[in-house]
Amino acid sequence: MNLFGSQLYPSIPSYYGGGNPALISIALKPENREVIGRLLDREDWMCVMQNIAILHENKEAFYILPYGTGFEYPPVVIPKDQIVGAVYQTKELPGNFRCLDKQ
């Protein structure tokens, strides 16, 4: 049991019932983008923020770790009505953000 809890459970994705949080990329609504970005301690709030770990999700909010599981940063709650879009990632992306240029 100890081996399962310490070795196997953390490697199973949360959508299969394991303990490995899913990763998402999000874009925030413009009117509150700076406030929420600063609560997340992210300087890239104007861009699509990537590699955000979801600890829990319900119909109202995402409970997240802003920098994934590799950093010692406290969980943050983001109301879903403050998010323009969210994309579930299949793997960790090389950068923590992606800025989309206006053309």
Question: Explain this structure to me?
Answer:
The structure is a single chain. By secondary structure, this protein is mainly beta. It has one domain (21-94). The protein is 14% helix and 34% strand. The protein has two helices and six strands; from the N terminus they run αβαβββββ. It has helices at 2-8, 33-39, and strands at residues 22-28, 48-57, 61-65, 76-79, 83-89, 97-98. Strands 1, 2, 3, 4, 5 and 6 form a six-stranded antiparallel sheet that branches. It is elongated. The chain starts with a helix and ends in a 5-residue tail after the last strand. The mean pLDDT is 84.
Measured distance between first and last alpha carbons:
55 Å
- The fraction of residues in strands falls at 25-35%
Give the overall pLDDT as a whole number: 84
Radius of gyration: 14 Å
Question: What would you call the shape?
Answer: elongated
Counting H and I runs of at least 4 residues, what is the number of helices? 2
Low-confidence stretches: none
Number of domains: 1
Structural class: mainly beta
Question: From N to C, what is the helix and strand string?
Answer: HEHEEEEE
Number of strands: 6
Helix content range of the residues, please?
Answer: 10-25%
Main beta sheet strand tally, sense and closure: 6 strands, antiparallel
Compile the SSE list and pairings.
Elements: H1 2-8, E1 22-28, H2 33-39, E2 48-57, E3 61-65, E4 76-79, E5 83-89, E6 97-98
Antiparallel strand pairs: 1-2, 1-5, 2-3, 2-6, 3-4
